[in-house]
Amino acid sequence: MNKIPVPRLLPMLLPAAFALACLTAVSPALLRQVPMDEMQTFKTSFLGILLEALPFVLVGAILSSLMHLFVSEEMLRRWMPRHPVPGILFACLLGLVFPVCECGMIPLIRRMIQKGMPVYMAVVFILSGPILNPVVFSATYMAFRLYPEMVYARMGLAFAVAAAIGGILYLCWKDNPLKHSLALGVTQDGNGQGHTPAHGSNKLTAVFVHAADEVFEMGKYLLIGCLLTAGIQAFIAREHLADIGSGSVSAYLFMMGFAFVLSLCSTSDAFVASTFLQTFSGGSLLAFLVFGPMLDFKNMLMLLSVFRTKFVLLLAFLISALVFTGAVLVGALWL
């Protein structure tokens, strides 16, 4: 029986301890230079974003571990439709089964690709899952209960953008998008890296060991994204940013950029968007609600840690172009 690998904590804890010691040494000088209000905003924003995202990263890591240990390639192939059209519909509906926020999607979808899920279906699930699920629908409805058309516009545009990108990737991308080390990290039994036989008490232990590995791997990118996002929120005045977004077209670009840097969870971004109802058009708010869950700063870092840079850049371009075009059309015709 194979031994279950233990996470290597020491190589990760030593750099963290060194960074903490440096911050402790220089923090008095830094605090004297930064206004206390901005520093308090920075700390509050950082902790808020981190605590908001971390539970979903944990959920995604646990689901990834369960899939790694209990779902075989043959089982996944039996579930997946072979034709691309029902395959895209199947991937969109997976959000109802796995209502995971975008923060927890990356480890889960990496495991699905390693198990044999086609790239176009995996990307559709990444893009649609954080929006097309009951939790986000309810949160959006609560935030826009006086404007229910915004709720249905968000769901419809998210479905259309995800399906369109899935179709484009089906036609244009044939390679494995995972980084080289991840794409080759499959053992001869076909069940992924570090496969552990699921027997007896080893089942539960192996799930948590794999989940811990996933969290430590994704966590460093999440922390960097949270730090930079909190810095933007704390040290850049929002009124200056709002002046940039006062134009008809620039409002869409501003709200998409705003969603990118804020990096809010899809279960809470609707409440932020609703505060701009009196100052921004419905179409620009729709762009904010759809673009953010599909592509934000912290998720970009996590995507780059798993997928090849060329693939991430193509995905970012397609998301930006289709969300902008769709939001402008919906805003002009309906909202």
Order of helices and strands: HHHHHHHHHHHHHHHH
Net shape: globular
Task: Provide mean pLDDT, rounded.
Answer: 74
Strand content: under 5%
Number of strands: 0
Structural class by helix and strand composition? mainly alpha
Fraction of helical residues: over 70%
Number of H- or I-type helical stretches: 16
Kindly report how far apart the N and C termini lie. 61 Å
Q: Give the biggest beta sheet.
A: none
Radius of gyration: 21 Å
Give the uncertain stretches in residue-range form. Answer: 1-13, 185-200
Short summary:
With 335 residues, this protein is mostly helical. Helices cover 74% and strands 0% of the residues.
Describe the protein.
The protein has 335 residues and is mostly helical. The protein is built from 16 helices and no strands. It has helices at residues 10-33, 36-70, 73-79, 84-97, 105-115, 119-128, 134-143, 148-172, 180-183, 202-235, 238-244, 250-262, 269-274, 282-294, 297-306, 309-333. Helix 12 packs parallel to helix 14. The N and C termini lie far apart (61 Å).
Mind sketching the topology for me?
Elements: H1 10-33, H2 36-70, H3 73-79, H4 84-97, H5 105-115, H6 119-128, H7 134-143, H8 148-172, H9 180-183, H10 202-235, H11 238-244, H12 250-262, H13 269-274, H14 282-294, H15 297-306, H16 309-333
Helix pairs in contact: 2-5, 2-10, 4-6, 4-8, 5-6, 6-8, 8-14, 8-16, 10-15, 12-14, 14-16
Can you give keywords for this protein?
335 residues; mainly alpha; 74% helix; 0% strand; globular; disordered N terminus
